[in-house]
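**User:** Once you have settled down, spend some time on the protein underneath, comparing sequence with structure tokens, and judge whether sequence predicts the tokens.
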Amino acid sequence: MPFRRVQHPLHFDHINNLWFIEQAQHEIDTYGTDESGNLKLCSFRNIKEKDIQKFERNVSLTCLRNNWLYLKKMYKNWVTLKKLVGDCYNEVTDTFSFTEPEWVEILEVLP
């Protein structure tokens, strides 16, 4: 019997993440963030309603919050990495030119 991967209904892929980021930016522009820099609860509720309309799935507020925190962490890591590497990032090939010891040093800095 072949193994078939079943995608979880609350799975976020790149397209959904892009949609989520656009919605989050709209909510930030409209309602701002709380004192910790996270989306407000009303913003998560608005995104949930829009998600139900667009994707016909009922995503929990916890799932939306976790996705927000994950994307926020990824963005912070990307910004930190770009600051650390300086000229070693090639925008044309979208790669970093480092040796193995340099990567070890950088990965010690990033969480």
Remarks:
- Residues 3-9 have pLDDT under 50 and may be disordered.
- Residues 6 and 12 are 14 Å apart (CA to CA).
- Residues 14-109 form one domain.
- The radius of gyration is 18 Å.
